[in-house]
Design a protein that fits this description.
The complex is a heterodimer of chains A (about 375) and B (about 300).
Chain A lengths: L1 H20 L1 H21 L7 E7 L4 H11 L4 E7 L2 H9 L5 E5 L3 H7 L12 H4 L5 E4 L4 H8 L33 H31 L2 H5 L6 H31 L7 H25 L3 H18 L11 H8 L2 H15 L7 H21 L6
Parallel strand pairs in A: 1-2, 1-3
Antiparallel strand pairs in A: 3-4
Chain B lengths: L8 E12 L2 E12 L3 E5 L6 H8 L7 E6 L2 E3 L3 H4 L3 E4 L11 H11 L4 H14 L15 H12 L6 E5 L7 H16 L3 E6 L2 H5 L3 E6 L2 E6 L1 H6 L3 E9 L1 H8 L5 E7 L2 E7 L5 H6 L6 E8 L3 H11 L2
Parallel strand pairs in B: 3-8, 3-9, 6-7, 7-8
Antiparallel strand pairs in B: 1-2, 1-4, 4-5, 9-10, 11-13, 11-14, 12-13
Helix pairs in contact in B: 3-4
Classes of the chains: A alpha/beta (about 375), B alpha/beta (about 300).
Chain lengths: ~375, ~300
Amino acid sequence: MIASLRRIFAIMNKELVQLRRDKVTFAMIVMIPLIQLVLFGYSINTKIRDIPVGVVDQSGSAVGRVLVSVVEATGVVKFTGFYTSIEEAEASVRNGTVRAVLVLPEDLTYRLVRSPSVNKGLPPSTQEETSRPVGQWIVDGTDTVVSGAIQSLRNMPLTELFHDPPNRNTATFEVALFYNPEQRSAVNTVPGLVGIILTMTMILFTSAAIVREHERGNMEMLITTPVKSLELMIGKITPYIFIGLIQASIILALGYLLFDVHFWGNLLSLFFGTLLFIGACLSVGLVLSTLATTQLQAMQMMVFILIPSILLSGFMFPYEGMPIEAQYIAEGLPATHFMRIVRGVTLRDATLLEMPYDVLWLAGFFIVGLAIAALRFKKRLD
Amino acid sequence: MSASSAATIAVDAKGISKKFGDFTAVNNLDLSIEEGTIYGFLGPNGCGKTTTMRMLTGLLTPTNGSIEVLGLTLPKHAEELRFRIGYMTQTFSLYKDLTVEENLKFVCDIYGLNSRERKTRMTDLVDRYNLGDIADRFSGKLSGGQRQRLALAAAVVQKPKLLFLDEPTSAVDPESRRDFWEQLFDLSDAGTSIVVSTHFMDEAERCHKIAILDAGVKRADDSPTVLMDNLGAAVLQIDGNNLRQLREDLIKLPEVVSAAQIGSRLRVLVSQDVADPEKWFSKLTVKHAATHAEVVRPNLEDVFVIKTRKQG
């Protein structure tokens, strides 16, 4: 027993010394979270502002110009192109200069006045008149997020146009936004990033760490010694548990400093949740290490898990929006479960006990992975 | 503390074979290695030396046959055997990014030595294998000879009863090789059985007993002197000029087993059917510019040539 611990400790210590001397890997531990956080934190933004659009004003009226400035005042779009013909405007949409074009017809003033949303009409508008919109948007509908944003302008109120006090408009539902009232994407992205970065580094580091022993010929020496496979695995992955915790701390601390993402949750829940996830990733890495024979192969296999983790775990796209088959795949990724845990804990102040399903999944990954790896790892050369 | 009976056989292998797909690396090999001896596997690259050694250390499972090492049946008791054998691999397999001292410390810990045992053992090893000056150097930056000393020190950390060395001196200069063998004889005197593989004749000659391996088959198994004495051919050494041409002609004769030029001499193995080789040669018509021929003592290379030729 003592000899066993001594062996585990010897391997751990050796791993740390090697890691300290491997400057590139050491730098990666700090730089990967830092760079990814800045990249993802600033670039992922589902709330779109200032989409470049154009206008074809066939009316040439003062009302037309005022209408354009009112639309621009919403902040959703920014008028960058002014065209005289529809053909010219369509060409600009095609070549990507603008994402949409607003076409204002010749009878704009008349349509406006008769429009029910302005409600200036006397005598009251006829059925036919009310069904006629004020203008038309020609939208490049390829990007659903962009077109969705422009579609939100469809029913924009126009009362402002005539300096009327805004109508007291009673909504059907009142919506209270908990946890992220300003709707900032970073609040959702930063905790999720912990899961993505840990998936990447933990799986890669452990699989590479074992494969490296094969590649450099050290395994031939190790397997002739009394070291047991489980001792080797534990000794190898323990240093990376600490590294994972350090990386998680870096991301959450920088998330607070750079993106003002506050941490509301229970520290103990966060610690154990992260620990479980690190364990799950490490055991996946160990399984990969028994499949790969070179570090390059290990890397390629890691990518195979990383990409689905980014796309399906709910990090980028909501889990609920995915087809049922994709949801099944997502359930099989540790990152999906951690994504729920970390967002729950850091943003909604949930505790691990409130999310037993995901906790059990992660624990299952860890134990099954470790068992498979220990069984597959042979102290033999054949 | 030696095991049950008065077993003086350290390695006992019967009919072991190893096949990798269609390729037979080792074919029906019998080995019996006595305790306390230095036993050599002599053979060219690819003859099955490493495969045999890996089977004897439990790293490979033989396709056929049974192995007993230090009284333990393999591969069943491979884990138990680990504590009692040392294995020095063909290529340097310690950590190149660790220093000499760190490597030794690591190996001591792996064998479960406590810190006090480790300290005395390391002082002893550093002293004996002359590692004091290079203790702080990275093992990847050592010369071939230094690396070999470190590898040997690491292989004997747990004071093994049986030591396997796979081509230990292939990357080492002759001076270091001599020193290395001195260390092996010290270990042997202290009671360690040693199994070493090599393709150097001079190295094989130092072993108490050798097995000549060729294409996975054992061609001979005895002490080098016995093998040389019972060569089954005479060695004729011929001086003279134009030896290339002479060799061409001699090799066609049925009595000649082999002929090889060594420097300015020709070494000819003549079948034992020829009663007096010197006389036989003097009567030959194809002498070219040969000036002198005499029978000399066979060496191990002659044995190797004869043994690996016959069946071929």
